[in-house]
Amino acid sequence: MAARHRMFADVEASGWKRTRRVTTGDMDITPMIDVVFLLLIFFMVASTMQGTPEIDVPPAAHSLGVEANNAVVVTIFAASARGAERIVLGDGAGDEGSLDDVKRYVADAARAGKTNVVLKAEGDVPHGVVNQLSRAIGEVEGVKLYVGVGDQPSR
To answer: Exposed/middle/buried for 1, CB within 10 Å: 0-12, 13-18, 19+?
Structure first.
């Protein structure tokens, strides 16, 4: 019965013992890695994902006017329920066009002596659309670009 109580009596009798070798300088970093992953998961779950806030641009106190007889105007209307933003070649009225049409329109006006370009946009037009259009206009040599943005409509 004595052998029954000691499960590993034959192992101990053979002289084999399980020893753990500990050397100085070695450190088990497994618990630290566990804590780092737990903190990472905690902050991922606890934080809120927010986009960039809308920037409230104050109205200009002083501005520089552009002479209408020496300027060409391109107007961007905000997207409606029917489709995307509309680009109009003119001051609110005129033909609708694409980026290529705007570049041709501005280049033709620059050859005719109108070197100032006024880009007008409604308040709901995304910044990316205005940026694309201003880059397209900037590719035409010899023109100065002026940007005007209308107020946000009240909702």
So the answer is: exposed
Q: Quick one: average pLDDT of 71-90?
A: 78
pTM, two decimal places: 0.53
User: Which fold does the domain 70-149 belong to in CATH?
Assistant: Nucleotidyltransferase; domain 5 (3.30.420)
Q: Show me where the domains of the chain are located.
A: 70-149
Please name which of 57, 87, 79 lies closest in space to residue 149, comparing C-alpha atoms: 57
**And the tokens for 106?**
């501005």
Degrees, nearest 5: CA angle 104-106-109: 110
Measured between alpha carbons, how far is residue 142 from residues 107, 135, 147 in Å? 9, 14, 17
